[in-house]
Design brief:
Elements (H helix, E strand, L loop, with lengths): L1 H22 L4 H33 L8 H9 L2 H7 L1 H46 L3 H6 L2 H43 L1 H48 L1 H6 L3 H54 L4 H42 L19 E9 L5 E10 L4 E6 L5 H8 L11 E4 L2 E2 L5 H6 L1 E4 L10 H5 L8 H10 L3 H6 L17 H15 L3 E5 L7 H15 L3 E6 L2 H4 L4 E6 L2 E6 L1 H7 L2 H18 L1
Parallel strand pairs: 3-8, 3-9, 6-7, 7-8
Antiparallel strand pairs: 1-2, 1-4, 4-5, 9-10
The structure holds adenosine-5'-diphosphate and magnesium ion.
């Protein structure tokens, strides 16, 4: 059991590492330069205490020089320690040169790290966005927009910060720890052991604190999420808030959540302060320990004064990497969670076509045969639905809300895949599963029930599927969709911005924009899914008459709960709870005296009442 768990953990760590390596594809070279430069910075750090030590012991004092090999060679080059006493400027110069080199390498470290970080960030965002674009519609329906956006922003940031702040430092940290301990051991075994003992203590202590802080950060993040949801809801739902006089209630709700959020931050700040101050104390104790024992050894004559000062310098140098190591260990898990969250997107399979997918002529008969479908197991939405739409005809579908009308459209466009054992949908005898998805959708123009407009100009919204159409074509489509008068009523015409930053269109206006958009696409198959529901009956009739002339030889599927809209269809089916209950022409259906007739009578009565009123 434990063995199994260990293997699973190992597998997960490997998967995370592999994905991270993969994500680092374009930015790796910058991080390698950064690591190499930070190696040089760390080496410079190591040199200074050795120069101070040699100066004190051998230039000021008269002890034999015991500096590392290459320093000895430099001293020999300058003419030995005795000569150095009269050339103090040489020592000063060496310190300046080291400082200059350090500055140069630090510059390279920071620039390459920043560049690498931005390249990594951009690469991750591009990759996620293009992957998401190719994920099936059903995936989008299952995943919340807010959550996907958070994965593409916050989680991407966490990974970038982990790489550029932590991962690149890890080499510098290890170099600094190994180098300073090595330098200490080369001077005095006992004192070096005392200094080394504190390393695991401080690393463990930092790791403990940072893991607690990560949890607090997570809590703060969650509270922030709730707070912004409240604010966002109130901004978008301002009409409801005002109309129902909920201002005070909403203000209180916001203040309550704001308090919780502030408290969470204060708690985190307390933790941070406690960590930094106690960490300073711990490091101070370590230096004090080295200092006390070093002084004792000095008095006993087993350590030189220069060595003592070098030891204290190394103890100070050791402090930063040791504390950082603890932080890195703690933050590794945070980055791991973010990598998993991104993997959830990148590992989701993209929409693919079968090998050798076809692009057949779409001006052909469409046939549904024995189609049964369920979004969730056990909840059948369509049951054994069969019908045929001869090419170039208008096909009407009538049904109550939830009867499965839009589901038929989803299946026809392959927004959801129909499992092979659940029936077949064919166009000109070719199974749509064998048709290229992009070809299928390119040739089917749809007006969705709730059209979506981008925050762009009216013209851009209409021309989405036909960017290089002529002005005449645009005007003609607008006239057919009864959109021309609306456009003329705006001072900026087609250049009017719609959506959040521009004018707000009514439901009916949006539907008309969507109809014009579909008409411009000029596809051989056109689907209008309850697209005139928000348009008044009079305009509905106008559009219907204009559309009839416009359809030409296209195959049209008209979905509506308004019988007047459907009357022009060559054939109509009535859907009830996912089953076809009646079918025929308008006249045949009226004669059948079933549901269709009942709805027809009811709607006629309502219309008369409307006219009377
Ligand atoms: N993406 C979906 N996931 C799960 N259930 C869905 C989804 N879309 C629609 N449904 C359900 O399928 C049924 C039929 O929906 P739909 O085809 O949209 O009906 P209609 O267009 O006739 O109003 C409804 O009960 C609806 O709740
Ligand atoms: Mg629908």
């Amino acid at each position: 059991m434990i063995e199994q768990k260990k293997n699973k953990e190992k597998g997960r760590a490997m998967r995370r590492a592999r994905l991270l390596w993969d994500l680092l594809c374009g930015s790796r070279r910058y991080f390698i330069i950064c690591i190499a430069a930070s190696f040089m910075v760390a080496s410079c750090d190591m040199l200074l205490p050795q120069i101070i030590r040699t100066t004190i012991d051998s230039v000021i004092g008269d002890k034999e020089t015991d500096a590392p090999g290459f320093l000895l060679r430099m001293i020999d080059l300058a003419g030995g320690v005795d000569a150095l006493a009269s050339k103090i400027w040489l020592i000063a110069l060496s310190i300046v040169v080291i400082a200059a080199l350090q500055a140069l390498f630090r510059y390279v470290t920071i620039t390459s790290n920043t560049r690498g970080g931005e390249v990594l960030l951009k690469g991750m965002r591009d990759r996620l966005f293009s992957h998401i674009q190719r994920l099936p519609y059903s995936w989008h329906m299952k995943n919340q927009t807010g959550d996907i956006i958070q994965r593409c922003t916050s989680d991407v940031d966490v990974i970038k910060n982990f790489v550029s702040d932590q991962l690149t430092s890890v080499f510098r940290i290890i170099i600094l720890i190994v180098f300073s301990l090595f330098c200490m051991y080369s001077m005095d075994l006992r004192l070096a052991t005392i200094a080394a003992l504190s390393v695991p203590v401080i690393v463990g202590y930092s790791a403990y604190f940072y893991s607690r802080m990560s949890k607090s950060f997570l809590v703060c993040d969650e509270h922030e999420g709730v707070l912004s949801t409240i604010a966002q809801e109130n901004l978008t739902g301002v009409r409801v808030v005002r109309a129902f006089g909920r201002e005070v209630f909403e203000k209180d709700r916001f203040e309550k959540q704001n308090n919780i959020y502030t408290d969470a931050w204060l708690k985190l700040c307390r933790l941070l302060t406690a960590y930094w101050s106690s960490g300073d104390l711990l490091s101070g104790l370590q230096v004090a320990l080295v200092f006390v024992f070093g002084t004792i050894f000095c008095i006993r004559g087993t350590l030189t004064e220069g060595e003592l000062i070098a030891f204290i310098s190394y103890s100070y140098i050791l402090m930063w990497p040791v504390r950082r190591l603890g932080r890195m260990i703690a933050e590794m898990s945070k980055a791991g969670v973010s990598i998993d969250r991104i993997a959830h997107i990148l590992d989701s399979p993209q929409e693919t076509d079968k090998p050798g997918a076809l692009c057949p002529d779409m001006r052909a008969d469409i046939e549904f045969s024995h189609v049964t479908f369920a979004y969730e197991e056990g909840k059948e939405v369509l049951s054994d639905v069969s019908f045929k739409i001869p090419k170039g005809t208008v096909f009407g579908i009538l049904g109550a809300t939830g009867s499965g009308k839009s589901t038929l459209v989803h299946l026809l466009c392959r927004l959801y895949d129909l499992p092979p054992e659940n029936g077949k949908i064919t166009i000109g005898g070719v199974d749509i599963a064998d048709i290229k998805a992009s070809w299928l959708r390119k040739n089917i123009g749809i007006v969705l029930q709730e059209p979506f407009l981008f925050s762009r100009t009216l013209g851009e919204n209409v021309k989405i599927a036909a960017s290089n159409c002529t002005d005449e074509q645009l005007e003609e489509a607008a006239a057919t969709a009864c959109l021309d008068t609306t456009v003329k009523s705006f001072t900026q015409g087609w250049d009017t911005l719609v959506g959040e930053r521009g004018v707000t269109l009514s439901g009916g206006q949006k539907q008309r924009v969507a109809i014009a958009r579909m008409l411009l696409k000029n596809s051989p198959v056109m689907i209008l899914d309850d697209s005139l529901s928000a348009v008044d009956t009079e305009t509905d009739e106008k559009i219907r008459n204009a559309l009839k002339k416009r359809f030409g030889d296209a195959t049209v599927i008209l979905i509506s709960h308004r019988i007047t809209t459907l009357m022009l269809a060559n054939q109509i089916i009535v859907l009830d709870k996912g089953r076809i209950v009646e079918s025929g022409t308008h006249e045949q259906l009226i004669e059948q005296n079933g549901i269709y007739k009942k709805i027809y009578d009811l709607q006629m009565k309502m219309e008369e009442a409307e006219i009377d009123a």
